[in-house]
Amino acid sequence: MTDPTISHYHQHATHYQAQYDSVAAQDVHATWAPLLKSLTAGLALDIGAGSARDALWLTQQGWQVTAVEPAQNLRQLGQIKTGSKVAWSDAQLPTLEGLKRPEQGYDLILLSAVWMHLKPEQRPAAFHRLCDYLSAKGMLIITLRFGPSDPQRPMYSVSTEELETLAQQRALSTQDLSEALTNDCLQRHDVHWKTLCLRPKHGHSV
Q: Bigger pLDDT: 179 or 30?
């Protein structure tokens, strides 16, 4: 994320915690949640974890979750909520500096409502770093936000084509889980979403 964005989330942490927690994780992630049944619960990485809503949801399904949140106040609120159930890190994309990679990598990486905050020139490095942290049979979930930007937390245009191109460079398959743009769970009529699932192609290492 860009520094102005991190500062904004830090300064308005209680607002965003309440906003995120006003909708259930299983509703926000309804497009890809069924895919969890195809995975054995292992190590999960939630990048841009915010209020810890999604991290807690994953722990309830048996996952061992590391939550990454660079906005200090938001991270501290999340830590209070999760206690020892979730490990926390203040790392940030594109480098994730300071976040230790498990030897086998993460079996699930979730990037929910984060990609649009990365400047286009940061995205190749960020994507390759995500791949470095993904296990050989892992699943990377990225949600794409389509809608107006917010001057206080800048957002940049996204596309499935951009991610497909990056995925090809690392021999990842890309599955668009949204036949059409899905509506926003917060009832913002000018905001819509797409969810992509990326996985290493059979016989290829990430």
A: 30
Domain span at 56: 3-200
- The answer for residues whose C-beta is within 8 angstroms of residue 187's C-beta and 6 or more apart is none
Number of domains in the chain: 1
Chain-wide mean pLDDT for the chain? 90
Q: CA Rg, the chain, in Å?
A: 16
pLDDT of residue 168: 94
For residue 81, tell me if it sits in a domain: yes
Closest CA to 158 of 134, 194, 182: 194
Amino acid at 121: E
> Measured between alpha carbons, how far is 25 from 60 in angstroms, rounded to an integer?
11
**Residue 185 in this model has a pLDDT that exceeds 70:** no
Q: Which pLDDT does position 68 carry in this prediction?
A: 97
Query: Tell me, what CATH number does 92's domain have?
Result: 3.40.50.150
Longest CA–CA separation in the chain, Å: 46
Amino acid sitting at position 199: R
